[in-house]
Amino acid sequence: MSDLDQLLGQVAAQMRNAPADPRLERLEDAVMAGVVSRRERAVARRSLALAGIVAVGIGWIGSVVPGSPAQAASRPAIIGMSDYAPSRLLGQ
């Protein structure tokens, strides 16, 4: 068992003395970029969910509140309205 311990100790010492992988220097930037990306996606999801809830609420309130009966608008006082306008031809 002591041979195995010595071998593992030597390997550990070699790994400690070995230079660090250069990719580890860029790791923090990649992790922080991922965190920012996830945060932006979460904010976008929340905004979309809020817009959907507001739209559903407005639609529900609009369907519950009784509407007033439709009434035709009074004749427009437009100067120079042609006698051939569709509203005149249809008798409105």
Search tags:
single chain, 92 residues, mainly alpha, rod-shaped
Q: Could you explain how this protein is built, in words?
A:
The model has no long low-confidence stretch (mean pLDDT 84). 63% of the residues lie in helices and 0% in strands. It is mainly α and 92 residues long. The chain has three helices and no strands. It has a domain at 28-57. The longest helix has 38 residues, at 27-64.
Percent in helix: 55-70%
Number of strands: 0
- Count of runs of 4 or more consecutive helical residues: 3
| Largest sheet, strands/sense/barrel | none
Low-confidence parts lasting 5 or more residues at pLDDT below 50? none
Mean pLDDT: 84
Which structural class do the helices and strands define?
A: mainly alpha
Q: What is the chain-wise order of helices and strands? A: HHH
Q: What form results from the Cα inertia axes? A: rod-shaped
Radius of gyration: 37 Å
Beta-strand fraction estimate: under 5%
Distance, first to last CA: 106 Å
Transmembrane segments: 47-65
Keywords: Membrane, Transmembrane, Transmembrane helix
